[in-house]
Amino acid sequence: MVGPDAIADAVAALRAGEVIGLPTETVYGLAGDAANPAAIARIFAIKGRPSTHPVIVHLGDAALVPRWAREVPHVAAALIERFWPGPLTLVLPRASSVLPAVTGGQDTVALRMPAHPVALAVLRGFGGGLAAPSANRYGRISPTTAAHVRADLGNDVEIVLDGGPSDVGLESTIVACLEGRVSLLRPGRITSEDIETVAGPLAQRLHDVPRVPGSVAAHYAPHTRVELVAHSVLGQTASAHVAAGRRVAVLAPSPLPDVPLAAAVVAASDAASYGQALYRHLRALDLAGADVILIARPGAALEWAAVNDRLARAATRP
Ligand code: TXA
Ligand code: MG
């Protein structure tokens, strides 16, 4: 899939200050040297992202954390021990050498060690930290395949490493370990309960700082309007739209509504499979030329928290 030559080319490009499409187990990242201001500027320019939004620094080895964080609380070390490499990002007090462009000018830095063989090979070859936001234009759906990255960013990136479809399919869980408190900033595959088994009870989510653009309500949105509805009223909602002359696309468990649909995807019944495929399905449904995408709201159990968070954002109009 991705051989040693491709890894070496990617590492050389990163050393030269270029940015690349990098597969991770969560979503694909747009990666550049986190210590090179020009590379960071390029990432923000390609994404069209406001420069005040911080990016995650990816590491190939947990031993590098003290170079980026001036303080690694015991609880952070325990979370790293338990969940790295994996879909967990930790927000810690930043080391003084970390570029303000990486942290959005904040006194904290977000760090993660991804569990993907290609990402790890690139990170280990590169040696340093790679800043990598999701490889989509600002506000759009995150990419979970190399083809998604190509479709979104086109000729703006020369190298996109194809590491296959992302296993998790949703962005990493973000946890802040600051001022003696542990709080959840973004839900992901690793649940709040998983975090609590290591860190004890989480503090109430902070609303002032730090900033998380994932917490801007309208994020991860398809172009087509998305409506979340209870499965029990899906059929009648779809019929009403069709009767009003609207073209309807549906993401729901079977049975699907018995009306003509512009597109339909049968949703998985377990949270992990649903989350893995969600962005791919949203992209496909967005291309169906429908007036509305109807999504049956999944259960409210904890394991669905990340899926429900992303669905709520997809259904929020900017
Ligand atoms: O799964 C992921 O985390 C993916 C892959 C590529 O690793 N990356 C990702 O990056 O989702 P991005 O930039 O799309 O989202 C990163 C999130 C943002 O919501 C950002 O605000 C937050 O991390 N973040 C970064 N640094 C932060 C900081 N110092 N304090 C609080 N939040 C921070
Ligand atoms: Mg993103």
Write the layout of secondary structure elements.
Layout: H1 4-15, E1 20-22, E2 29-33, H2 37-47, E3 56-58, H3 65-68, H4 74-83, E4 88-93, H5 100-103, E5 108-112, H6 117-126, E6 130-131, H7 146-153, E7 173-178, E8 181-186, H8 192-199, E9 225-229, H9 234-243, E10 248-252, E11 263-266, H10 271-286, E12 292-296, H11 305-314
Parallel strand pairs: 3-5, 4-7, 9-12, 10-11, 10-12
Antiparallel strand pairs: 1-2, 2-6, 3-6, 4-5, 7-8
This protein binds threonylcarbamoyladenylate and magnesium ion.
Features:
single chain; 318 residues; alpha/beta; DHBP synthase; Rossmann fold; 2 domains; 8-stranded mixed sheet; 11 helices; 12 strands; globular; binds threonylcarbamoyladenylate; binds magnesium ion
